[in-house]
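REQUEST ID: PR-0412
SUBMITTED BY: lab tech R.K.
PRIORITY: routine
TASK: structure prediction, single protein chain
INPUT:
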Amino acid sequence: MGRATKAVLAYSGGVDTSVCIPYLKNEFGVEGVITLAADLGQGDELEPIKQKALDSGAEESLVIDVRERFVNEFAFPAIQANAFYENRYPLSTALARPLIAQILVEAAEKYGADAIAHGCTGKGNDQVRFDVSITALNPKLKILAPAREWGMSREETIAYGEKCGIQSPVKKSSPYSLDRNLLGMAIEAGPLEDPWVEAPKDVYRLTKAIEDTPNEPEYVEIGFEKGIPVSLNGEFLGGVALITKLNEMSGNHGVGRIDMIENRLVGIKSREIYECPAMTVLIHAHRDLESLTLTADVTRYKRGIEETYSQLVYNGLWFSPLKGALDAFVQQTQERVTGIVRVKLFKGNAIMVGRQSANSLYSMDLATYGSEDVFDHKAAEGFIYIWGLPTRVWSEKLRQ
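STATUS: complete
OUTPUT:
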């Protein structure tokens, strides 16, 4: 494809992405590097990151606030799809990657860059998510991944940066790898690589330990409109504010901690710790509201769609044709998923204790065992005969 002249680099301000700037110039022959840091609600002060990129040799440093976009275009569709990877992980980090890829491509097209670069290694999922998403959005752009090629240890990477004028970290780095955004925290590496070792209390940032949570439960009523959360306890909130507030409420009760052995796309298992208070509660509440408003056949069929959907997102295929087709199915199912779910937060649990909807398919007259019962009990005998007929025929033949 030839040598790239200008690259937009996904930038976090850490050692690896900072070293990528001179490395792209010195080893890859890139003439100009533009860095891009996405504000995904990670809570970091991004202005120092912007300056650090310029000090490290970037010709321009971009910081883009994409929190609203992150929630409305990525988190909310995942909630509508009840997206839990391997039935546990609500994809907090995975959902951010296609958005970052999207704004990288937009910046490359705006600034006339012919390449996009990132600092992902060759062992993780993020390299796949970035590369495939970028290719889907603009296959003409070159993709550069220095950390996948340079083969340097952490110490060698720091030394390379110092040689290029990049200051080394002033404090001992944490043994953990942390990735935070508005939807949650992902924690791995260090002592956590031993799957037998319990995660120390100090790795958690968003959730309280069970022993430190309140001794009284807290109730929250979550309002949904067409499968999208819109209110907490009757207060209508924008997506960012709603998730921020529910993170605090749920995390205070220890809800949303996940400790799992995860199957990475690249074929290895990894031990992952996640904190996703709001997303965990919202998906469970949304699924509960669906049980009230969707027919049985749609509900059952959608479960298979949800598993496939989650795998596609995890595996970096957000912009794939199959994902687009599943989106259409999910959106069709959400037309009547409007109502309120009451959730009890207590000692690490989010318990669905009530639900109501103008579109409810629940009939008290049919469900009750009281005097108001209108169900035709006499019809049951004929139904059972027809329903069990194949089994009856099979059994008779078996006994001959």
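NOTES: The longest strand covers residues 32-39.
REVIEWED BY: pending
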